[in-house]
Design brief:
Elements: H1 2-5, H2 7-14, H3 18-43, H4 47-66, H5 71-89, H6 97-121, H7 129-135, H8 143-172, H9 174-179, H10 184-206, H11 211-225, H12 229-253, H13 259-275
Helix pairs in contact: 3-8, 3-10, 3-11, 3-12, 4-5, 4-6, 4-7, 4-10, 4-11, 5-10, 7-10, 8-10, 10-11, 11-12, 11-13, 12-13
Length: 283
């Protein structure tokens, strides 16, 4: 009763579980990377790319499971590979809607086939793996997975920050950036590789179906609150982290609520609040 009435005691009790600590560590790292990469996705109007990669993540993980290898290997190989492929097929390192839509369709078809094969051949094995890929399993991450998530997220953040200035230039005006010597296509390829890696990581936290929300919504909120690029990047990451923390706490307090739903519900409420905020409140 004391823990229920005392938030500090309740938080201490919550952090006593290793799976909660692993989820918080991994979720924080993933959220920082998702917020930063998501800002450029929104700025470059490439949100549809992230939507396509969510289906690629689903397909890659299931193909890997069907072949008997670690689902994370399939996640990263598929999302990064297809992300760069989308850039190669599009102009100046960007994929257009036709390329993305076509890729979306055939990748989803392969995913359905892989799901059918996997569920048929593994009915007595890891039958919940497909559900975990779709909706996330942040409470199922062990210490090794949390460490891997932190290392990958750190790499994504470092590369994104190094790339930030030329990427901003290329995002605002590709033609002028190219004329000034910015390698627009190469920058686009590297960025799409970062999106693929971030999508693969985010799938572990909120699942393939919901990863678009954690990539796009915090950035959308940040861009409605400030017009300054670097401030918006930091704000997007902070909002994503806050949503992950709040979602995990809410899911722990109300066990019937899945953590992925709680995380996305919070960030959605934040976006709705940002929509009604007066324009003059921006900084």
């Amino acid at each position: 009763m004391t823990a229920a009435l005392d938030p500090i005691a309740g938080l201490h009790h919550m952090l006593g579980y290793p799976f909660i600590r692993h989820g918080l560590v991994a979720g924080t790292a993933i959220a920082v990377a998702a917020g930063l990469v998501g800002y450029f996705l929104v700025l470059r109007s490439q949100v549809f790319t992230a939507d396509a990669l969510s289906h690629v993540a689903f397909t890659g993980a299931l193909v890997a499971l069907t072949l008997g290898v670690d689902a994370r290997l399939g996640l990263f190989v598929a999302t990064i590979g297809v992300a760069v492929l989308l850039g190669l097929l599009g102009p100046r390192g960007r994929a257009d809607d036709v390329v993305i839509g076509s890729t979306f369709a055939w990748v989803l078809g392969i995913g359905v086939l892989a799901l059918s094969i996997f569920t048929t051949g593994h009915s007595t094995g890891n039958g919940a793996a497909g559900v975990n890929v779709l909706f996330g399993s942040i409470y199922g991450l062990d210490v090794a997975a949390a460490r891997t998530a932190v290392l990958i997220a750190a790499g994504v953040v470092v590369i994104a920050l190094v790339l930030a200035r030329p990427l901003l230039f290329a995002s605002i005006d590709e033609s002028v950036a190219a004329a000034r010597g910015v390698p627009v296509r190469l920058v686009g390829y590297v960025f799409l590789g970062l999106v693929g890696a971030t999508a693969a990581e985010t799938t572990q936290a909120v699942g393939a179906l919901l990863l678009l929300g954690l990539l796009a919504a915090p950035a959308g909120i940040a861009m409605r609150l400030t017009t300054r690029p670097y401030r918006a990047m930091g704000l997007a990451s902070a909002i994503a982290v806050g949503s992950v923390w709040g979602g995990l706490v809410f899911s722990y307090a109300v066990p019937r609520v899945p953590p992925s739903f709680a995380i996305l519900a919070l960030v959605t409420c934040g976006y709705l609040a940002a929509l009604v905020m007066p324009t003059r409140a921006r900084t």
